[in-house]
């Protein structure tokens, strides 16, 4: 230091240690809160809530596969005898178009209004329109009802896996794959129900629209009514008895921290766990307007879709997943 320099001429240079710490932004808060919710699920552990939820989601898998197997293998040959369509196999294309659109639509709805409404609505709609298919007066009407029923079925299948994955502890993640076993159960149930109906209440194999009248071909209609009734029973059990809380991870993603804490504590109480979360355990973003509940900077659907293909590793993973599902569909 220069001894001739006067004290008043000295200026203080702030060091890095004295720098100000900026509050976390919305994206950082979201990541931290998602990690805290995941840690809470781990500490609560596997219990009654998850098992009830798995049974409820299993209902969706059974209902979805029963309807798909029903359309392709059982309904199309029997209805073709009565209606005589030019391209009978297009019923499968109608069904899978409905499944694809429904999966995308309900995925967007689940992100906007919540997992629970989409989860309950999808299986209820599947039940209602499966039964309505029995009233089809012609081939065009059957295609329309099949498409609408498949629309709800596609959404139901997508939401089932989502709500279960967001509430399972990490070491129990294999249950997501185990749910696929219920597809076979859905096929078996449908086949057993259809067997006596097709044999006794459907037109012979060599029948034509001139010889196959509605009164002689009621078997496939009875099958629709029975399966629709079974799906309705499962949807009522899901809504009124088994039930579910809104996903705490979704609530956090929408900035609804108070509701997320309540959902975690409800899961803990159902599992008879002693774990309790408070609102102070989560991070609030002070830069956002508190009157909006921390929802002013929510990620958009476009930004979420972009993140799925961001980076070489993520892009390669998504390409492989899409290719696998395409091959499964073809097979």
From TrEMBL:
It comes from the Eukaryota. Residues 53-331 form the Major facilitator superfamily (MFS) profile domain. Residues 1-23 are annotated as: Disordered. Keywords: Membrane, Transmembrane, Transmembrane helix, Transport. It is found in: Membrane. InterPro entries: MFS, MFS_dom, MFS_trans_sf. One of its GO terms (cellular component) is membrane. It is a multi-pass membrane protein. The keyword Iron-sulfur does not apply. The chain crosses the membrane at residues 87-109, 121-139, 145-165, 172-199, 219-241. GO terms for molecular function: transmembrane transporter activity. It holds the Pfam family MFS_1. This is Major facilitator superfamily (MFS) profile domain-containing protein. It comes from Aspergillus nanangensis.
């Amino acid at each position: 230091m220069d001894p001739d320099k006067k004290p008043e001429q000295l200026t203080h240079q702030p060091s890095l240690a004295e720098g100000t710490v900026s509050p976390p932004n919305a994206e950082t808060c979201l990541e931290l809160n998602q990690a805290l919710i995941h840690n809470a699920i781990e500490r609560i552990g596997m219990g009654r809530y998850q098992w009830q939820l798995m049974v409820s989601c299993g209902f969706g898998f059974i209902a979805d596969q029963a309807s798909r197997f029903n359309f392709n293998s059982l309904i199309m040959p029997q209805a073709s005898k009565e209606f005589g369509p030019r391209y009978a196999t297009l019923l499968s294309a109608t069904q899978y178009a409905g499944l694809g659109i429904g999966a995308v639509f309900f995925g967007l709805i689940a992100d906007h209004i919540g997992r629970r409404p989409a989860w309950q609505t999808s299986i209820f709609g599947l039940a209602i329109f499966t039964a309505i298919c029995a009233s089809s007066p012609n081939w065009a009407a059957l295609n329309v009802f099949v498409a609408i029923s498949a629309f709800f079925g596609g959404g139901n299948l997508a939401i089932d896996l989502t709500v279960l994955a967001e509430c399972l502890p990490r070491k129990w993640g294999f249950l997501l794959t185990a749910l696929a076993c219920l597809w076979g159960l859905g096929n078996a149930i449908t086949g057993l129900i259809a067997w006596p109906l097709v044999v006794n209440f459907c037109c012979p194999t060599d029948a034509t629209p001139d010889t196959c009248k509605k009164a002689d071909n009621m078997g496939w209609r009875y099958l629709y009514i029975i399966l629709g009734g079974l799906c309705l029973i499962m949807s009522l059990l899901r809504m009124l008895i088994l039930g579910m809380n809104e996903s705490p991870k979704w609530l956090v993603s929408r900035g609804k921290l108070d509701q997320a804490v309540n959902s975690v504590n409800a899961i803990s109480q159902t599992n008879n766990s002693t774990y309790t979360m408070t609102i102070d355990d989560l991070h609030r973003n002070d830069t956002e307007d508190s009157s909006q509940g921390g929802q002013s900077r929510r990620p958009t659907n476009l930004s979420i879709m972009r993140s799925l293909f961001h980076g070489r590793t993520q892009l390669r993973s998504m390409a492989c997943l899409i290719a696998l599902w395409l091959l499964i569909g073809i097979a």
